[in-house]
Amino acid sequence: MPSGPGRRDASAAGPSGQALPPINLSAIERGLWGPWHSAAVTTGVSIVRAGAPARVPLATAGAIGWPAWLVALVLHLAPGIAVAGGWFALRADELLPFYGICALLVGSGWWLRSRGRQRASDILEMSGLFYLAAAGTALTCTVSTALALPYADAHLAAADRALGFDWPAMFQLFHASPRAAHLLARAYEILLWAPQMLIVLLIAGRLPLRAWRFLTGWLIGLLLTAIVYPFFPAIAAFHHYGLGPEMMTGTTAQVSWNLPQIMEDLRTGITRSLGAAQLTGVVTMPSFHAAGAIMLIHGYAALRWLRWPAVLIGGTIFVSAVPVGGHYLVDIIAGLGLALIAIVAADRILARLEPAPSSG
What we know:
Structural class: mainly alpha
């Protein structure tokens, strides 16, 4: 169900049809998200209340959440098979706290739904799903790294040159301007919290269907990344061109400088365990930072007052993936294509599941 001007994926009625009371941040919401996210919720409310929303039934996980759950479970298939087959050892003592937090978030969300707290329920469940899928992606890519397919850096660098892009020259130009380097470094970090804030804003603004669309697209993007990555394992442009942290502007030295060693240990069999150390990124191609930036722009477009700021910030995140994240130009081009596929797929899947709007 596409959302057009003047339409909101929300409901002004609770499960029994009564009008919902004014939004009141509960102690649970404040305690979980802290001052920053509480402010985000309040801001989201003010944004959406600027217009009169059309009324549609509140989204429920049972109705439209199952595609996101399915993707999250699929992202854990490869690690599960690797452990069951004896190829990797599971460090349960290291992973249990993380997965325990995910279970707590989801379980709290389901409990709150049973108590009629739909918005808080959606925020908690979607947050748990978000982190669950991120962990599944990291563990899946760890397992696929052990396949030891040839490194693709030389081919990725050649593709950049074919496009007329000189990565070392870009690097020198980037670090000739400390202010630009600092700006892009800060933009690169935004992807760590902007997706969660978007979920809070959409739910608080009574746009639960848009929130589920965003999360489903995000998880589909992670799945596509995990599928493509094994065919293009790479140690990143920094390492390929022999650049070290001493050549980086201090604020931008955020790359995993031991990535080549991490990958070699997996490829040679030195590392054969799945634990907390494996909950990190090893993917160069495609760039999920670039894909995530595009999906954020699309997601924030539902919030009228944040639409154009999101374009500016998202565009900066997209660009930062090359000099700050060490991606090749072709990595972010692939990330762009991946994001478009994920957005379209999520929209088409959930359009079949979303309830029709009512005029009452």
